[in-house]
Specification:
261 residues, alpha+beta, 5-stranded antiparallel beta sheet, two-stranded antiparallel ribbon, 6 helices, 32% helix, 21% strand, globular
Length: 261
């Protein structure tokens, strides 16, 4: 058979396609465990950063050793020990018929449309006592859904940190949610007033240091009204009764204890 025949060209191309497909498939399978490990480490790093305890010079796993991961039933506020926290995927659960629910439009201030019935929470313990609580939160901004972690101190009101790890907002505008100076504003603010009512607010403009509500206010993002409103709304949803409200009530009533399922 001549080397330049159409048939031989097609045969060689076919063989190369099969070989390349096999190599790509094999690589994907072989690399999947490493990808999952890196994904898990990145998640833990983001949680540590939100909690304000991340040290780039220390192994992430060592820093995360005092954290306990649990699955919470948002309707009852109790733990679901029958759901494996190590494999639970909250985003996938939101899309499923069994573990996800549609959010009524009147309650959907965060623009979720659907959410999981359950949520992962992270308990940082110190000597067997709750030291910090890290909650995953998400909601619509201008161009994207913002995903982040909110860290509450053991009083379950004082904010120790707030950071987004995934979003597609405009750099220099809504993307300023990544600005360290803006994130630093959250540290020490109060999410709830003395009566336990949700009160933290992201303003449209700048805060006034002399305001009696300064402990509950954070500067808005300049030129990013919709993203600012989105951050404010997603906190209102997840810290309210439709989100973690029932769970937080259980914790507070147990003086920082943990509600068993």
């Amino acid at each position: 058979m001549a080397n330049d025949t159409v048939i031989k060209t097609l045969v060689v191309a076919g063989i190369l396609s099969v070989v390349c497909s096999a190599l790509v498939s094999s690589s994907a399978v072989l690399l999947r465990p490493l990808q999952e490990t890196n994904k898990d480490l990145d998640r833990k790093k983001n949680i540590l950063q939100a909690a304000g305890t991340y040290d780039p010079d220390q192994p992430i796993e060592d820093q995360f050793s005092n954290f306990e991961i649990k699955v919470v039933d948002l309707a009852t506020g109790k733990f679901r020990d029958d759901i494996d926290a190590s494999t639970f995927d909250q985003r996938k659960a939101a899309k499923s018929q069994d573990q996800g629910i549609a959010v009524p439009k009147k309650d959907d201030i965060a623009g979720l449309k659907r959410r999981s019935r359950y949520a992962l929470i992270y308990l940082a313990n110190d000597g067997g006592q709750l030291d910090q609580l890290i909650l995953p939160v998400h909601g619509k901004g201008l161009w994207s859904t913002l995903y982040g972690y909110l860290a509450l101190d053991k009083d379950l009101s004082t904010i120790n940190g707030f950071a987004f790890y995934q979003h597609g907002e405009t750099p220099g505008l809504g993307g300023e949610v990544d600005n360290p100076r803006w994130k630093q504003q959250w540290v020490g603010k109060k999410a709830f007033d003395d009566q336990g009512n949700f009160k933290i607010e992201v303003l449209k403009g700048k805060t006034n240091p002399s305001s009696p509500d300064i402990d509950y206010q954070v500067d808005g993002l300049s030129g990013a009204t919709i993203t600012t409103r989105g951050v404010d709304s997603l906190l209102g949803y997840w810290l309210g009764n439709e989100g973690f409200g029932t769970f937080l009530t259980y914790l507070k009533s147990n003086q920082g204890g943990t509600p068993d399922g």
